[in-house]
Amino acid sequence: MWTTSGGGHKNPECQVFAGALNHADLTAVVARFGSVAWHNPNAAQLFVMDQEEFFFRVWMIRNGALRQYAPSSPDEEDDEFWPPVGA
């Protein structure tokens, strides 16, 4: 059983699988995620952060198709992603 200090007994309310992949083909990882016969595909979520990235891209399956739900821009390559120098 999962316990926390001062908070009593807690139980996880979802299943989470985590992995750190070195030199992975992320396009293939996302494609594989989309091809799995999930029991409830609307509940499956894939969080992907590549090297040199600063936020996760979230992939979900909607109407049988993969969709990215994290912002695609601005990303780390865009000037407006970073705060102004001296700010």
Number of strands: 5
Structural class: alpha+beta
Parts with pLDDT < 50 across at least 5 consecutive residues: none
What general outline do the C-alpha atoms trace? extended
**Ends apart, CA distance between termini:** 46 Å
**Major sheet: size, sense and barrel closure?**
3 strands, antiparallel
Radius of gyration: 17 Å
H/E element order = EEHEEE
Helix content: 10-25%
Sheet with most strands: strand arrangement? 3-4-5
Q: What is the tally of helical segments?
A: 1
What integer is the average pLDDT?
A: 84
How big a fraction of the residues is strand? 15-25%
Descriptive report:
The protein is an alpha+beta fold and 87 residues long. The protein is 11% helix and 23% strand. The chain is built from one helix and five strands; from the N terminus they run ββαβββ. It has one helix spanning 26-35; strands at 2-4, 8-10, 45-48, 57-62, 65-68. The strands form two sheets. The chain has a three-stranded antiparallel β-sheet, with helices on one face. Strands 1-2 form a two-stranded antiparallel ribbon. 1% of the residues are buried. The model has no long low-confidence stretch (mean pLDDT 84).
